[in-house]
């Protein structure tokens, strides 16, 4: 594949990923509305649900999963605690670390939505067999890692003021 063809194919992939991201944001907004939280709070609850394993999960682990700053997770989990969706307890190992776990209220809300979520998840992956999904997950993990690297490389350009290399000054 020529460099130009590869670039065109990569651009097509990136636009597909952008569209998927936008539509997933719409879904998350709707799920959040159903239980009376914001979309970012819904994502935090989803992350806690996936990561917790019955022993709580740190704000740093949630932030890493969602690719956000831990301070944002701290403020949002405090709001979720006030709303009765999360318990925040200091770690027995390190009291500086706060562990989050879902409350009965959150678990009940997730349980009420579970059949609909399962149905919509099936709709999302309709036509893809288990092998294709496994291969797609591996490929997307590679893309995610590469996007992270590209983000860091571009941040270096910005940090070193290399804008003039890419943008012509006005004549």
UniProtKB/TrEMBL annotation:
Pfam families, per database record: MarR
Domain HTH marR-type positions: 1-145
Quote the PROSITE patterns the UniProt record gives: HTH_MARR_2
Which SUPFAM superfamilies did the record assign?
Winged helix' DNA-binding domain
Q: What's an example of a GO molecular-function annotation for this chain?
A: DNA-binding transcription factor activity
GO BP annotation list: response to stress
Question: What is this protein's name?
Answer: MarR family transcriptional regulator
Organism, per UniProt?
Bradyrhizobium rifense
Its organism's taxonomic lineage begins at:
Bacteria, Pseudomonadati, Pseudomonadota, Alphaproteobacteria, Hyphomicrobiales
């Amino acid at each position: 594949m020529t460099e130009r063809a590869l670039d065109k194919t990569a651009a097509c992939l990136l636009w597909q990923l952008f569209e998927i991201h936008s539509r997933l944001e719409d879904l998350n907004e709707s799920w959040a509305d159903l239980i009376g939280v914001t979309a970012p709070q819904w994502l935090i609850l989803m992350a806690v649900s996936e990561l917790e394993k019955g022993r709580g999960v740190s704000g740093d682990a949630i932030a890493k999963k969602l690719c956000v700053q831990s301070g944002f997770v701290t403020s949002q989990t405090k709001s979720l605690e006030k709303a009765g969706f999360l318990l925040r307890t200091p770690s027995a190992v390190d009291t500086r670390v706060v562990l989050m776990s879902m409350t009965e209220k959150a678990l009940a809300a997730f349980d009420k939505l579970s059949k609909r979520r399962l149905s919509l998840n099936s709709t999302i992956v309709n036509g893809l067999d288990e092998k294709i999904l496994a291969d797609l997950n591996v490929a997307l993990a590679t893309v995610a890692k590469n996007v992270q690297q590209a983000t860091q490389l571009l941040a270096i350009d910005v940090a070193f003021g290399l804008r003039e290399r890419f943008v012509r000054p006005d004549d």
